[in-house]
Amino acid sequence: MRGIVISLRAASALLAGLALLAEGTALGQAPLPIFDTHIHYSKAAWESFPPQAVLEVWRKAGIERAVVSSSPDDGTVMLYEAAPERVVPFLRPYRDDVNSGNWHQDPNLIAYLTGRLARGIYKGIGEFHAFDADIFARPQVRQMVALAAERGLYLYIHSGAEPVRRLLALDGRAKVFWAHAGMGEPPDVVGGLLDRYPALITETSFRASDIGAGGRLNPAWRTVLLKHKERILIGADTYITSRWADYGDIIGEHRRWLSQLPPDAAEAIAWRNAVRLFGSGGLKALEKK
Questions:
Q1: What are phi and psi of 153, to 5 degrees?
Q2: Which pTM does this prediction carry?
Q3: Rg for the chain (alpha carbons), in Å?
Q4: Least enclosed by CB within 10 Å: which of 143, 236, 239, 265?
Q5: Would strands 87-91 and 124-129 be described as parallel, antiparallel, or unpaired?
Q6: Which CATH homologous superfamily contains domain 33-286?
């Protein structure tokens, strides 16, 4: 039964995406380009989706550019080397036995980060998980925050609201990118943090079902999206291999709620904000006026 439900959900999302594409074509408008700011290209996906296969998945979904972090970081480097104009590398601290639950205890954290950062290609550190705000009391985590601040790198945090508050209080120079718009946080909490911290940015991976529940844009989310349209971005989150297979459907869900926003807001969230923050890579589709 669960498989049937998932199949029906995927079919519904696909039909919605096709309908939006057809509507855009009927109006003589190309579908919005998307700059996906939450991609992982981790080891489990490499065999099934080699770099050229990933680029084809992106092409079919209308993805022009992406922020990529991986476990291990070699996946990000592979994609970057295959298409540097399409990939904005972020450095994830996870590798081998270092993972989402213990990375903040890693005694080699700073040595690992500084060694990889020497490549000179990274725009941020993360995505990293903060299940408890107390991790920011650890010396190596504080050093990581200072390192990012000194180099102008984003800190890409997966957490609820409290760890974000703690991180922002730790160093006023920190550039914080909040994954999943807090994942489970309600729109008033997300909007409240965006109100309080003018430099905070966030993205919508795993939130499409909240933002566009039942196919209609949720009014509370609409308020947040419009008020903070310059600081919200799109993300898919390919944290497991199956999400590469479902990628078109995931992006289709985002396109569905984007289509219910005013065009300027939809464009800002879909790609313009990310281009302003991370550049266009010289891609013509992302250099529209």
A1: -95, 145
A2: 0.90
A3: 18
A4: 143
A5: parallel
A6: Metal-dependent hydrolases (3.20.20.140)
